[in-house]
Specification:
The protein is of the alpha+beta class. 27% of the residues lie in helices and 32% in strands. The chain has three helices and nine strands; from the N terminus they run βαββαββαββββ. Helix 2 (56-72) runs antiparallel to helix 3 (100-115).
Amino acid sequence: MSVFLGWMPDAAAQAVLGDMRDGLAAALPAGAPRHQWRLPAQWHCTLRYLGESLSPPRRDAVEASVAAVAAAHGRFTIALEQAQYWPGAKVLVALLSCPAPLRQLHADLEHALRTCGLPAEGRALRPHVTLAYLPTRDAPPQPAQGSASHPLNIDRIHLLQTAPRGYTSLQSWALAGPVQDA
């Protein structure tokens, strides 16, 4: 079971993502591959993968470090930008903006986790929420895009673990610093 840091959408963000999902489902062309739609409780944005498990001492160190980072960062908004198929990964995602407060939070988390002995993460931050899994890499044409982006509140970091039907939040921390403008 994977362990990672992430953001879970609140009720308002779930409503916006749900509207996007419903519009996408209604617009699927005839003959499109079957989509395995993710449930709102499964929606999240991964901020940092931590591994398959954490030993108790490592988890204690991670929790203390993340608590310190969360205390130094204030809540902020990101934008729900568009839906996009990633055929190589066999997913349909909701792409999110990557404003300066998110990039700084990510960099500070990365630094804090490196001091806990975790190796550097080898991939760039690509903020997204997975809306559906596809059975093949043969994705339908990219969805038509609306013109409006929707702000989503980022106010908490979760330590998440995969579970049989979603994710379990093992711990969470409010972003308690001054509110940040995106």
